[in-house]
Design goal:
- By secondary structure, the protein is of the alpha/beta class.
- It has one domain (about 15-315): Rossmann fold, CATH 3.40.50.1820.
- Helices cover about 35% and strands about 20% of the residues.
- It is built from eleven helices and nine strands.
- A nine-stranded mixed beta sheet has the order 1-2-3-5-4-6-7-8-9, with helices on both faces.
- Helix 2 (about 110-120) crosses helix 3 (about 135-145) and helix 5 packs across helix 6 (about 195-205).
- The radius of gyration is 19 Å and the shape is globular.
- The chain starts with a helix and ends with a helix.
């Protein structure tokens, strides 16, 4: 059901809540609950997976990448719900959330406030927080407020510095054939069919190395919310001229006091060398590199990723 239909139905009956309960579904001993939550700028869609058996384990809240993508590609992580509740949400403008026509909404401060609203309205007294790629940007900002409810932070292939990200991307691009490099360089300001074909060569090396790509990943890129991406990031993967152009949180990582896990793939856009540098800034940090993966290790090495994450979380919070 489309978001505006849901909203109209509730308004028609005169019932206004900050959290809209939508459905409850069970599968393989996992219960699925969906909601809409009011955040600055509109409504975001939230889904919670939890075991049908009682579990007092601290929930894992997952923040997807982008800007402009949805949560779907991360759903393999819902398998962790056998141990603890696992919660996803689509950021405003993405997936099943509202898509307001207001370009002033696309900024890091509002997305960080959005995360805070989700946590508060779900009454999460303690959480483990995982952010992938751009999601790592958001959760790092949230963690820097030193919230008392943050049990641990997982930065999965995170984007933490625009300057370093662009430098790494250009270094990876330089390893491609001369012809592909020329096409990518020419297409930085005017996207063409040739550019799209060339960027897929880059993506298949450094975004997802599975062949063929999972359908969820292909549809994710096709459904990208362009206003958020272009306003915040810019015109192409290698040109940053959006409002994140000066973003850099790496030096601030030392101000995060909870345990922090960094993960990346061996062939990742978030390069292992950059993750090592980030690790050096953390007070309580660990790094795991997945050797057969690039940017989406939870898809490329799902079993290994899930097993490692489960062990890590249970080490911080042993199963009772």
């Amino acid at each position: 059901m489309k978001i505006f239909n849901v909203v109209l139905i509730f308004l028609f009956f005169g019932i206004i809540f900050s959290i809209f309960y939508i459905s409850k579904k069970k599968f393989k001993n996992i219960q699925k609950n969906e909601y809409f939550i009011t955040v600055p700028g509109g409504l975001v869609w939230v889904v919670k997976y939890s075991s049908t058996h009682c579990s007092a384990k601290t929930p894992l809240l997952i923040v997807h990448g982008g800007p402009g993508m949805a949560h779907n590609y991360l759903l393999s992580l819902s398998q962790l719900a056998h141990d603890r509740p696992v919660i996803f949400y689509d950021q405003l403008g993405c997936g099943r959330s509202e898509k307001p026509n207001d370009n002033s909404l696309w900024n890091l401060s509002r997305f960080t406030q959005e995360l805070k609203c989700v946590i508060e309205q779900l009454h999460l007294k303690e959480i483990h927080l995982l952010g992938h790629s751009w999601g790592g940007t958001i959760v790092s900002e949230y963690a820097l407020t030193n919230p008392s409810n943050l049990r641990s932070l997982i930065l999965a292939s995170p984007y933490l510095s625009t300057k370093i990200w662009i430098n790494d991307a250009n270094a990876l691009r330089s390893q491609l054939s001369d012809n592909v490099q020329i096409i990518l360089k020419k297409g930085e300001n005017s996207i063409s069919k040739k550019y799209n074909e060339a960027i897929m060569i880059y993506y298949k090396k450094h975004f997802c190395r599975l062949n063929p790509w999972p359908k969820v990943l292909s549809s994710l890129l096709n459904d990208l919310h362009l206003p958020a991406y272009q306003i915040m990031w810019g015109s192409s993967d290698f040109i940053m001229n959006g409002n994140l152009k000066d973003f850099d949180n790496i030096e601030n990582l030392s101000k995060i006091f909870c345990p922090v896990l960094l993960t990346c793939g061996r062939y990742d856009e978030a390069t292992p060398s950059t993750m090592e540098y980030c690790l050096s800034k953390l007070k309580k940090g660990n790094l795991k590199v997945f050797e057969q993966s690039s940017h989406v290790a939870m898809l490329e090495e799902t079993k290994n990723y899930l097993n490692f994450l489960k062990l890590y979380l249970n080490k911080i919070e042993p199963l009772e």
